[in-house]
Amino acid sequence: MKDNTRRKGRPKDPLKEQAILQAARKLFLEKGLEVTTEEIARVAGVAKATLYSNFADKELLIEAVLRQESDLTISDRDFSERHRLPLTEVLTAFGNRFVRFINQRELTGWDRLIASASIRHPDLPRRFYAAGPGRAQQMLEAIITEAIAAGALKPCDPREAADDLAGLWLGMTSLEIKLGARQTLTDREIERRVTHAIEVFMCSYSAGRNGTSGQS
């Protein structure tokens, strides 16, 4: 069993850790997962020992890069602040970040990387999904579950409701973008798409539709 604890020594420099993550992300997308830790350290401008003081092995570095990608959908801090806001504001903030993440051209690069690497790393697609879209889905399900308990949404299957909302946010447009059949969405298009999807979602799922007052 791997020892995932980081090595003892000097206090870690967060700027060097970010440099390592950025270099690893860049090289993974450009060259695949077979890029060496020596090259990652060189591009990051740090010693190899510094890389290993932050990430005990390459697999932990890969996991950290994937987790950083998933923070583009919703960070733990954003998620923890959801209780202070009305449901529609929470869903709007979540949707804007989620659609912006899916809207990235670089996401196609991750698709290619994972497809090519899955032969030697068969667990990678599952890990990528769990760290990114899967994590976002769990958070969205939690938001919906809490809204049902609070009476803002009518009783339903949270997973099914989350799938419905994500489908409204993405639609066929995400496939067009991924295939290069259209340009990525502008900020204004994203905001309009997210708002419209939530309006449609609330028409179907709002507890008020059944005569029960819910969060606006």
Topology:
Elements: H1 14-31, H2 37-44, H3 48-54, H4 58-70, H5 76-80, H6 87-102, H7 106-117, H8 124-131, H9 133-149, H10 158-170, H11 173-179, H12 187-205
Helix pairs in contact: 1-2, 1-4, 6-9, 6-12, 8-9, 9-10, 10-12
Describe this structure in words.
With 216 residues, the chain is mainly α. The protein is built from twelve helices and no strands. Helix 1 packs across helix 4 and helix 10 (158-170) packs antiparallel against helix 12 (187-205). The longest helix has 19 residues, at 187-205. The N and C termini lie far apart (49 Å).
Relative helix content: 55-70%
Summed up, the helix count is: 12
The counted number of beta strands is 0
Could you give the distance between the termini? 49 Å
Largest sheet: none
Assign the structural class, choosing from mainly alpha, mainly beta, alpha/beta, alpha+beta, or little secondary structure: mainly alpha
Give the SSE order as H and E letters: HHHHHHHHHHHH
Poorly predicted regions are: 1-7, 210-216
Mean pLDDT: 83
Radius of gyration: 20 Å
What general form does the structure show?
elongated
**What is the strand content?**
under 5%
Descriptive terms for the model:
216 residues, mainly alpha, 12 helices, 0% strand, elongated, disordered N terminus
What is shown here, in short?
Helix content is 66%, strand content 0%.
